Amino acid sequence: MSAIVTGTVFGTLMNFRGELQALGGKVNEPPYKAPPKAPVLYIKPANTWSGDGADIPVPASVPRVEVGATIAMVMKGPGEVAGYVLMNDFSVPHASLFRPPVKYKCLDGFLGIGGRLLVQSPAIDPSAFVMEVRVNGELRQTVAFNNLVRGPGKLLADVGEFMTLGAGDALMLGCDVGRPLAAVGDRIEISAAGMGSLSNTLVAEPA
Questions:
Q1: In degrees rounded to 5, what are phi and psi of residue 194?
Q2: What's the rounded Cα separation, in Å, for the pair 139 and 132?
Q3: Strand (E) or helix (H) holding 19
C-alpha cells in the first residue's frame, strides 16, 4: 500500500497531444467515430500498487512490458490538490491506444507509486514538469507535461463534471507516446524535479 495514496487511483488515456496524433484518422472510425469529448479514465485497483524499490512480477505469457511514466495529482479533498507524485503505469502492450482491455493494465503490481509528494503551492507550474525514464540506467524517454491536451486544472475540472474525487484519491495526468518496453530483469527508474525518483525491477512471476 502507499502512504501517499490512500483512496482510488484513476488513469487518464489520450491526454497527450502525441497520442491523438499517433491515432490519426483511426479516432474517427468505429466504434469511436470521433475524438474523446471528455476525459477517458480507468482504475488501477489496489492489487496493482507497488512501492518504490519493489520487484514487479511479470507472467511468463508476457514477453515485454510497456513503461507508462507519469505524474499523478493526489487529492486533499473534492477539487483540491494536495500535491503530485511519480507513478509508473505498467501495462501489457496492446494495439489500441484509445481503449485497451482492462486485463492488460491491471496485473498484480503493475503500478509503481513514488514515495515523495511534491506539495501543491502557488509557485508550482505543472506544465513545467519534465520527467526522465531510464531502463538499466540508460535514458529511454523524456516526458514534457507542456504537451497535455488538458492541463491538471482543466483535467480536474472536466472530471469533476461527472465524478467527485475524495481525499487520498489520485488522478494520473496521462502517458506520452514513445513508451519504452522492458522485460524481466530490467530496472526502470523515473525521476522529476521535486518528486525524487521511482525505481522498480521486473522479475519473473513464480510458477
A1: 85, -15
A2: 7
A3: helix 17-23
Average predicted confidence (pLDDT) for the chain: 91
Q: How far apart are CA 3 and CA 95, in angstroms?
A: 34
d(CA 112, CA 129): 19
What domains can you pick out in the chain, each with its CATH number?
A: 9-204 (3.90.850.10)
Q: How far apart are the C-alpha atoms of 37 and 59, rounded to whole Å?
A: 35
pLDDT in tens, 145-186: 999 999 999 999 999 999 999 999 999 999 999 999 999 999
SS3 label, residue 172: strand
Which residue in 1, 98, 100 sits closest to 45, CA to CA?
Answer: 1
Per DSSP (E only), the strands in 37-144 are 40-44, 49-51, 55-58, 65-66, 69-77, 80-88, 111-113, 118-119, 130-135, 138-144
What count of other Cβ atoms lies within 10 Å of the Cβ of residue 152? 22
**Burial class of residue 155, CB neighbours in 10 A (0-12, 13-18, 19+):** buried
166 in Cβ contact with 148 (< 8 Å) = no
What is the number of alpha carbons within 13 Å of residue 14 lying toward its C-beta?
Answer: 19
Q: Reply yes or no: is the peptide bond before residue 122 cis, omega within 30 of 0.
A: no
| First-to-last C-alpha distance (Å) of the chain | 24
The answer to whether residues 118 and 60 touch, using CB atoms and an 8 Å cutoff, is no
pTM to 2 decimal places: 0.91
Q: Which helix (H) or strand (E) holds 202?
A: strand 196-204
